[in-house]
Amino acid sequence: MIEWADIIAVSPATFQHIQAIAMNSHTTVHNPYRSAAYIISAHKLTQLPADEGIEVAFAGRSNAGKSSAINALTEQNSLARTSKTPGRTQQIIIFNIDQQRRIADLPGYGYAKVPAQLRAHWKKVMQRYFETRKSLHGVVLVMDIRHPMRPFDQQMVDWCEYSQIPCHILLTKADKLKRGPAQSTLLKVRKSLPARATAQTFSASKKQGKEQLITRLNAWYQYEDNETDSQARTPYDKI
């Protein structure tokens, strides 16, 4: 019997090392979000970029881990900055992926210390955003897995469903729970969702669930399944 190690002229020990690397390697999904760059902080909808191309919004309660999720996705530790006073940053932050693809980081909601008048103002702004933003192709709704589906979260799911916008729930800080309780929470959340919505567990610190999130976003952003970073195209290249 001829050994492959003999054919390729390497020692058995070296061949075993190559085999081990091959067995432990895996194909990673295309991650175009590493190129995300800050563009603008909009206090009004009129300050947003032109309503064209594809925009995906990240939304969630203050302290749910939204900024950490964006930073983990883009592999940039300080792209989305956290406020020292949760809920005080009331603006829509736009990150460009390329000329026709954007991430919209929406203001955190549900923080009690924000003045009632300001909360009411941003509720109206967000409602108008969901109803009128034609380029909005999906919403990543970030929730702390230990406190999922609070009233404001349910309202956000309802907004997405009413506006016919796909919603993907990111149950963050999954590393804070053991696998059993985490999966149990995931199943409960999934059962409560409308057909258009999906959910997954996620941990920014452990990088758990990152590829699943990227796969979901790649579909929304209309990236080809077999694209590499150098082959990424805009939605308008086919026109």
From TrEMBL:
One of its GO terms (biological process) is division septum assembly. One of its GO terms (molecular function) is metal ion binding. SUPFAM superfamilies: P-loop containing nucleoside triphosphate hydrolases. Keywords: Cell cycle, Cell division, GTP-binding, Magnesium, Metal-binding, Nucleotide-binding, Septation. The keyword Transit peptide does not apply. Signal peptide: none annotated. Residues 52-223 form the EngB-type G domain. It holds the Pfam family MMR_HSR1. InterPro entries: G_ENGB_dom, GTP-bd, GTP-bd_ribosome_bio_YsxC, P-loop_NTPase. Gene3D superfamilies: P-loop containing nucleotide triphosphate hydrolases. One of its GO terms (cellular component) is cytosol. PANTHER family: ENGB-TYPE G DOMAIN-CONTAINING PROTEIN, MSS1/TRME-RELATED GTP-BINDING PROTEIN. NCBIfam families: GTPase_YsxC. Belongs to the TRAFAC class TrmE-Era-EngA-EngB-Septin-like GTPase superfamily. EngB GTPase family. This is EngB-type G domain-containing protein.
